[in-house]
Amino acid sequence: MTYQITTAPISVAHRAQHALERVGSFFGAIGHAMMVNSTGQQRLDQIHALQAKSDAELAELNIKRDNIVHEVFKDLYYA
């Protein structure tokens, strides 16, 4: 009678590769979070800049004061 083992022992190289993948995934997640935060900050700065404009300046841009947020985020949603 023979026995067959269906699992092979995990080598050191395989463990190192797995560890590096996890570290890379961690830093990728941090980079993604920084990118999302940066994009959000840019939009917030744009809202503040538009709110600081006078009604006449907003009229030149064809933006109503009530629609500033909609104008800044119009590429993300449809309302």
Summed up, what is this model?
The protein is built from 3 helices and no strands. The chain is mainly alpha-helical.
**Large-scale geometry:** rod-shaped
Q: What Rg, in angstroms, do the CA atoms define?
A: 26 Å
Uncertain residue ranges: none
Structural class: mainly alpha
Structure description:
- The protein has 79 residues and is mostly helical.
- It has a domain of 43 residues.
- 67% of the residues lie in helices and 0% in strands.
- The protein contains 3 helices and no strands.
- It is rod-shaped.
- The N and C termini lie far apart (71 Å).
- The mean pLDDT is 85.
What's the structural blueprint in terms of helices and strands?
Blueprint: H1 12-52, H2 55-60, H3 68-73
Give the tags.
79 residues, mainly alpha
